Amino acid sequence: MDILVEKNGRYEPKPIVLDRRTEGQKKVTTTKFVLLLFCLKKVSPVLLFLAGLVGGGEGWAAVRLPKLVGDRMVLQRETELKIWGWADPGEKVTVRFRDTPYYTEADGTGKWYVMLPPQQPGGPFLMEVNEKVIRDVLVGDVYLCGGQSNQETPIERLVEKFPEIPVSNNHMIRHYKVPSQDVTDGVREEIAGDAVWHSATASEVMNWTSLAYFFATEVWNRYHVPVGMLVASKGGTDIESWISQERLKDFPRLLVDEEAVCKVKESRQDKGSGRWNQKDFDDSDWAETEVPGTWDERGIRTKGSVWYRKTFDLPSSMVGRHARIYMGRMADGDSVFVNGHLVGTTSYFGPPRKYDIPAGVLVQGKNNVTLKLTAMNGHGEIVPDKPYVIRGDEDSVSLCGTWKYKVGIDRTGVEEYVERLRQQKMVGSGLYNGMIYPIRDWKVRGAIWYQGENNAGRAGEYASLLKSLIADWRESWQMPDMPFLLVQLPNYMKKHDRPTDSGWARLREAQLQAASEVPYTALAVTYDVGEWNDIHPLDKKSVAQRLFLGARKLIYGEKVVCSGPIYKGMEVDGDRVVISFTEVGRGLASRGGDLKHFAVAGEDRKFVWTDAVIKGNKVVVSSKDVKHPVAVRYAWSDNPSDANLCNKDGLLAAPFRTDNW
C-alpha cells in the first residue's frame, strides 16, 4: 500500500509502514462479548455480571454510522470534514484518524458529529469510531455525479468497446452508487440499501458506472490524487425529481400537496399505540359499549381502529398461572393485551382468536384486557355467539358485557386526501429527498450532471430548472461556488433530409443557456459521440475527456481551452448572414471538409440547408433560395452528428439558433 506525497506539484506514491497491530490485539466490544455468552448452552449469572463490568459505562448500544462511512471510502482533501452518526443520547464518541482523536457525544436526539481539519491527500488510512474500524480510507478529490440513465450506464456494457476495463488495476480511484430512494413526503436523513465503496481493480470494477470510471481515470492519470465518485442517478427521471421543494416554488404543478400529506400521515398514526394497552392506563373518560357487537350496531362511526378495555377481578385459583383467552372471531384485525402484555394478534377476518396467557401475567385483584380492533373499511365487528372468556384450570372469567372504548385511528374523510396524493404523479423532489439530501454533508470537489432526455418534451422550462438545481445543490453542500460540469445531450434518432425543429435541440439550447448564465460551470458538447439507434451511447470515454477539460480549467486552474465556439451574434449583409462567436480558441476550423448542418430562413420561417464558409473568426452563410435571410440555425436537430464547426483546438461548436420562433 502507498501513501501519496507532494513532489513538484504532483502527488506520487511513497511506501508506508503498515499498522502492525494484529486482529488479536484489537478491542473486543461489549456487545460481541455478551452475544458470545448467550451462545453458550449455560450462562451463569456471574458471567453476565462480568459482562456488565467489561462494558463499563459504554452501555449496550454501538454507535451507528452513515452508510457512506465504510471501507474504501474517499474523503475530500483540503477542506473541513464532517463525520457524523447516531448513538444513545449522551453516549461519548471518539473518532480517531491519522493518529489524532476527536471527541464528542450524542445529543438528546441521538445525533453526533465531529469536524476533522483539512487533510492532505493520501492513504490508505484507518478511521476508528469507538469500537468500529473503517479501513483503506483515502483522501483526495470527490465528485458528485447526478442525472438519469446515461449517468448510471453500467460499465459492463462497455467492455467490448474498451478492452482495458476488465483488466483495470487502479486501487486509488473509488466508486459509490447511492441506492434509489424516491420519497415525496419529506427528506430522509439516511440513504437506502447497503451499497459499499468499490475500487477500480479488476475484481471490483464491474460495480462501477461507466462515465464515473473514465472521469476518475482522467483525474488520476493527470494529478495522481485519489478520486472518489459518488453517483446519485436513476434512469428515466426528470430533473425536477432532483430539486428540493423549496427551489420548485416557481413551478406550482411540481409542489407536493402538503395538506394532503399531513392529513394522510395523521390518519395513519394510532393515538393509542404504546399507551392505551398499559394495565393501569386511566380510561375513566372513555365511552362505554357492549361486547360482542358490530361498530354499526354500537354507533361507532369510524374507518380505522378502536381500542376496547375491560377491567375485572381475578379468582384466586388463576393468580400467576397459565391461562387461555378466547376472543371469538373479529373483523378485521386484532391485537389483544392482558395487563399490558401482548398475548396474541391476527391480521384478518376469519380465524378463531385463542391466545395463551403466560404464567405470571395474571395477578391478584384487578386485571385488565385491552383489545385493539382494526377495520379500515369501517365495518368492525366482534362476532356474537362465540366464546369471550379467560379460562384457567379451575375457574374462568367472562368477558362479555360492558367495555370501555375509544377511537385510535379514524380515516373517515381521508379518502379525498389519498386521492389528491394519488393524482400527484408528476411532483418533484422525490430523489432529492431520498438520495441527495442524505449525502449533503459529504464534502465534494465538484458535481457532474448528465440528464435531459426525460425533459426534452418540456425544454422551455429546462434552463430555469437546471439553474434551480445548481443553486439548490450548492446551498445543500454550503458551497456557493460549487463547480458544475454539464453534459449536453448527444445525437440521437434518425437524420432528416430537411431542417426540422427538435425537442432535443431545444433542450441542448437550454443546457447551454444555463451554463452561460451560471458561473463556475462548464459544458461538454457531445453531438458527435451518440448513436442514432441507442439512447444510451457507449462512448462515455470521450464524454469524460471533454468533462475533464472543463475540470482542468474550472477546478484545477489550468489555462486550457475547454469549450468549442459559442454563438455571439449575427449581421445581415444583403443575401448573406455573418455570424460571430466567442470561445474561438486559436481560431475557427472545420472538422473535415465543408461546413455542414447550417440552415437559413427568411420571413416565411422556412429553413433550408445553406452554404457556410469560415472567414477569419466568423462564419458567412448564404443560400440562393433565400434572398432576404433573417435567421440561421446550426446543428439544430435530434441527430446533428455531421455538424462540423469547431475551433483549432478540436472542440465542436455548441448548437445554436438566431431566432426565437
From TrEMBL:
<dbReference type="GO" id="GO:0005975">
    <property type="term" value="P:carbohydrate metabolic process"/>
</dbReference>
<comment type="similarity">
    <text>Belongs to the glycosyl hydrolase 2 family.</text>
</comment>
<keyword id="KW-0378">Hydrolase</keyword>
<dbReference type="InterPro" id="IPR006104">
    <property type="entry name" value="Glyco_hydro_2_N"/>
</dbReference>
<feature type="domain" description="Sialate O-acetylesterase">
    <location>
        <begin position="428"/>
        <end position="535"/>
    </location>
</feature>
<dbReference type="InterPro" id="IPR039329">
    <property type="entry name" value="SIAE"/>
</dbReference>
<protein>
    <submittedName>
        <fullName>Glycosyl hydrolase family 2, sugar binding domain protein</fullName>
    </submittedName>
</protein>
<dbReference type="InterPro" id="IPR036514">
    <property type="entry name" value="SGNH_hydro_sf"/>
</dbReference>
<feature type="domain" description="Glycosyl hydrolases family 2 sugar binding">
    <location>
        <begin position="261"/>
        <end position="386"/>
    </location>
</feature>
<dbReference type="GO" id="GO:0001681">
    <property type="term" value="F:sialate O-acetylesterase activity"/>
</dbReference>
<dbReference type="InterPro" id="IPR005181">
    <property type="entry name" value="SASA"/>
</dbReference>
<dbReference type="Pfam" id="PF02837">
    <property type="entry name" value="Glyco_hydro_2_N"/>
</dbReference>
<dbReference type="Pfam" id="PF03629">
    <property type="entry name" value="SASA"/>
</dbReference>
<dbReference type="GO" id="GO:0004553">
    <property type="term" value="F:hydrolase activity, hydrolyzing O-glycosyl compounds"/>
</dbReference>
<dbReference type="InterPro" id="IPR008979">
    <property type="entry name" value="Galactose-bd-like_sf"/>
</dbReference>
